[in-house]
Design a protein that fits this description.
The protein is mostly beta strands. The protein folds into four domains: 67-145, no CATH class; 155-282 and 427-433, no CATH class; 286-421, Sandwich (Jelly Rolls); 440-554, no CATH class. It is 14% helix and 37% strand. The strands form nine sheets. The protein has a six-stranded mixed beta sheet. A hairpin with a 2-residue loop joins strand 4 and strand 5. The radius of gyration is 29 Å and the shape is flat.
Length: 577
């Protein structure tokens, strides 16, 4: 695990020259990009468009809506009613007014607008369109053009997220099981043409298959790397398939050094890694057939359970049936070392009711490293990856539970189960880099004078221009907020520095009186970040306000509640003396 030391009272810092690392992932437990490069900007990807239940019933395509942008539009409408009185009081709003910004992978445009049959319509001409929702490409051929910070990818990890602790539908890697090997495939972006494919060093523990009867003999099974169907790295000659073990050496010592291959052109960008199946001592092939008698794992549900061996299409399955009970199976794997990674393949079919609950219990920590339901309505093979755990840990337990709640019958078939070692660090360490990137860490700058953090949704950052403070010389400086990435977080530059009441009011409503910093990025795949222009911090002391904009809806609700109570109290008739 990697940890970064930050001040617990602010969670805000500046960094410069952050590399662009991709692809973006949703789930992971091993961030190779952060380990090698430190803080980085997550490369934006195409966001899957979502269909609204109300905006169009015809199945059209839409650009994903930004809730924070809609909130800004609502607040804009409310403020316009009191705009004149605000200006009379001396608090003129900053121009231009707020504009919506929907992150999307379209070509960057100067500002947000609508395109209809070849003509551009400025977003300010139709505030109502912002309140209704995203535009659609159907009857009126309306699409929404959006701004987004799309920089060229500098580092790309094709197998970055080998994580399977969620649903099978959420896997972010592609794997297929062939007779003698597993095929891992990924797509390389075309903008990395001219870069270099870095193939990590291969260590003994990545490729070594020990004889199941005698650990003193082994064979090495090396992966094969292909790009667009062409072999770009072949494994070394096998020689004698089984040879006596050499004198004891470190299992992490490279047996094949790191390689760098130039990519002068990329045809389709189809990268494939053929990983030979490593069997032997640290593997297992299990069958649910003739397993122990039906066993309930829920003492409070005492319904009916049964097991039945069946054969369909030449495949053998154990059919587990439950009615108002829990029918479970356990497979003990006490010899598996936890310092290497495994690919667990499970043949399963969901026949009726809930799908099987699958758990991998770590015998060292006595907790579930994986716990998820197999796919519902599925028939095929599910894949799970166990990453390296404790170096000296040993043993796993595979647990399956066929759960029936009430009188709803549950029927599932369980077939062959295999556990094979895979070169986890080799796969996750493979990367494509352009020619400009280096392994130098980013520069953490220390020109933040003060961070005022009165509540969880508000940060006031004072940037220094003091000559005693070393200011970043790069034009690529990023303000990072170590809070979970959300579109509701907004950053505004404030020019008001005086400790007067009017200035404090402006800082309380930065979305009205400040200049929004539009160049927003995701940092380290989970943090909020904003790229700053050099003029933001080099010319004069500057204050940046970061707020969680949806929080102002709660404040607005409190205000309306207070007005309602005050109105009710005023209109309540008083009893005569």
């Amino acid at each position: 695990m990697l940890f970064r030391e930050t001040k617990p009272d602010n969670f805000v810092f500046l960094a410069s020259d952050l590399p662009q690392v991709g692809p973006e992932y949703k789930w992971n437990n091993y961030d190779k990009g952060y380990e090698e490069y430190g803080n980085y900007i997550t490369q934006a990807e195409s966001e899957t468009t979502k269909k609204s239940a109300f905006a169009d019933l015809g199945g059209s395509t839409q650009v994903e809506s930004d809730l924070a942008s809609h909130l800004e539009a609502i607040l804009t409408l409310l403020i316009r009613f009191v705009n004149r009185s605000v200006e009379v009081a001396g608090f003129a709003p900053a121009e231009p007014w707020m504009r919506s910004q929907v992150p999307h992978s379209s070509t960057p445009t100067p500002n947000s607008a609508y395109q209809k049959k070849g003509e551009l319509v400025n977003e300010n001409d139709s505030l109502l369109s912002k309140l209704i929702g995203p535009a659609y490409a159907k009857d009126n051929d309306i699409t929404q053009l959006t701004t987004y910070n799309l920089q060229p990818t500098t580092i790309f990890y094709p197998f970055r997220s080998l994580f399977s602790g969620r649903k099978q539908e959420e896997l972010e890697f592609n794997v297929k099981d062939y007779a003698d090997y597993f095929s891992f495939t990924a797509k390389i972006p075309q903008d990395l043409t001219g870069g270099k494919l870095i193939i990590p060093a291969i260590t003994q523990e990545d490729v070594r298959e020990f004889n199941s009867q005698d650990l003193s003999i082994y064979t090495d099974r090396y992966p094969e790397v292909l790009l667009d169907g062409e072999i770009i790295q072949t494994p070394p000659p096998r020689g004698n398939p089984w040879i006596p073990a050499a004198p004891e050496v470190s299992s992490t010592q490279p047996v094949i050094p790191e390689a760098s291959i130039s990519l002068p052109y990329i045809k389709k960008g189809n990268l494939e890694i053929k990983v030979p199946k490593i069997n032997g001592y640290y593997s297992s092939q299990l069958s649910a057939l003739n397993n122990q008698s039906p066993k309930s794992c829920d003492q409070f549900n005492t319904g009916d359970i049964s097991n039945e061996n069946i054969n369909e299409n030449g495949k053998d399955y154990l059919r587990l049936t439950s009615l108002g009970s829990s029918n479970c199976l356990d497979f003990d794997l006490p010899n598996l070392t936890q310092k290497i990674s495994y690919l667990v393949s499970v043949e399963n079919r969901n026949i009726e009711g809930k799908s099987l609950l699958f758990s991998v219990i770590n015998k060292n920590s006595q907790r579930s490293d994986i716990e998820t339901y197999l796919p519902k309505g599925f028939s095929g093979t599910s894949y799970f990856i166990l990453p390296p755990m404790e170096e000296f840990g040993r043993g796993y337990n595979l647990h399956f539970d066929n759960i029936s709640i009430g009188r709803v019958k549950t029927v599932n078939d369980l077939g062959k189960i295999t556990v094979n070692p895979i070169p986890y660090r080799f796969l996750t360490g493979m990367k494509i880099v352009n020619n400009q990137i280096t392994n130098n860490r980013e520069q953490i700058t220390d020109n933040i004078d003060e961070v005022v953090h009165p509540n969880p949704s508000y940060y006031q950052i004072s940037l220094s221009n003091s000559p005693e403070v070393s200011l970043p010389q790069s034009n690529n400086t990023t303000l990072i907020l170590s809070q979970a990435y959300d579109k509701g977080w907004k950053a505004y530059e404030m020019s008001c520095q005086l400790p007067v009441i009017s200035c404090q009011i402006k800082k309380s409503f930065p979305f009205l009186f400040g200049k929004e910093i539009k160049d927003r990025v995701m940092v380290n795949n989970w943090e909020n970040g904003w790229n700053l222009q050099p003029t933001t911090y080099n010319l004069q002391p500057t204050t940046i306000i970061i707020i969680y904009l949806p929080q102002y809806l709660e404040y607005l609700g409190f205000g309306l509640l207070g007005i309602a109570l005050f109105t009710i109290l005023r209109r309540t008739p008083r009893s005569s003396a």
